[in-house]
Amino acid sequence: MALSPHVPELGALELLLAVARLGSVGRAAAELGVSQPAASARIKGMERQIGVPLLERSPRGSRPTEAGRLVVEWARNVVEAAQALDAGIDALRGKRDTRLRVVASLTVAEYLMPGWLLALHQASPGTAVTLRTANSSDVAAHVLAGDADLGFVEGTGTPAGLEGAVVAADTLVVVVAPEHRWARRRAPVTGEELAATPLVLREPGSGTREVLEEALARFGGAAAPRLELASSTALKAAALAGAGPVCLSELAVTEELATGRLVAVPVAGLDLHRPLRAVWPSGQRPVGPARALLGLTRVDVPRGPRRSSPRS
Q: Its domain of life (predicted)?
């Protein structure tokens, strides 16, 4: 509902209250940081707007008329409500500025985010962070829906409707158990061989799957997968159990390759490098804690311990 044209603006009501409290237009003007002529003009304008005199003026000062006393009481309620609203808005802004909602792809969430969040905690100890994990297409959907302040995706490009910045680089590797025949071959696997082999893969919509399928497109596309699994942990378990060749991030298998529990299979003629991106809605630059976290991804912070997170 629109306000009546007879309702003065908040600043005029604050001036009227000051005059009633101090007994002088001049003293009220000084308190509010305006000139006396400007204050007098504002009072007269308010009287014209309301349609009744509000002040009785004399050499000793100014005091409210009978109608003015009523308006003063009503104005006091309005100004107090406005002050309460202002305090509430400040509280909301403070809560927003100490809260950060992040949604990240599994690779980023498990192997990079712990170090970034530790650095953010050290820089801004009061920031409360909520981290969700999802595959890259779902990350984009959450950010577009406003469910997250910042997202992190894997893949070949920035999803539609979002802007982004590359924050890290990653490489996909093909790994097998030491007993697999590919672990003993001397020549690299070719793109044609890899495309024709049923692999253990992430589910559609994941950045890992997207990058591999794009790389294999010129060889006729990937064969139907032997298994589709929804996390790097599950992929590694499948590889260790001998389920067949697995394609996943090298970040996920550093320990297994170093200890010989898995073997990396060289692949010839295939580019499996990919960028990892922070993303946010187009036209909305990250602010507050989101901006701080984005800045921390550009510096060398310690990588946190591996944390397995269920896909949400």
A: Bacteria
For 101, 160, 170, the CA distances from 217, given in Å and listed in that order, are: 36, 21, 20
Query: What is the residue type of 1?
Result: M
Q: Tell me the pLDDT tens digit for each residue of 183-197.
A: 998 899 999 999 999
HSE-CB for 279 with a 13 A CA cutoff: 32
311 has pLDDT over 50:
no
> Nearest to residue 55, comparing CAs of 4, 21, 9?
21
Q: Enumerate the β-bridge partners of residue 163.
A: 280
Handedness of CA 211, 215, 216, 221 (dihedral sign): positive
CA-CA distance, 119 to 98, in Å (whole number)?
15
For the stretch 108-140, pLDDT in tens is: 999 999 999 999 989 888 888 999 999 999 999
Could you identify the residue written with the tokens 């802007």?
Answer: 163
Which backbone phi and psi does 129 adopt, to 5 degrees?
Answer: -110, 130
In terms of pLDDT, which residue wins out, 303 or 296?
296
Domains of the chain: 10-95 (1.10.10.10), 99-296 (3.40.190.290)
Sign for the CA dihedral angle at 291, 294, 295, 301 comes to positive
What is the per-residue pLDDT across 234-246, written as a single tens digit (0 to 9) for each?
Answer: 999 999 999 999 9
- The continuous run of DSSP H or E covering 175 comes out as strand 162-176
Mean per-residue pLDDT, 7-17: 89
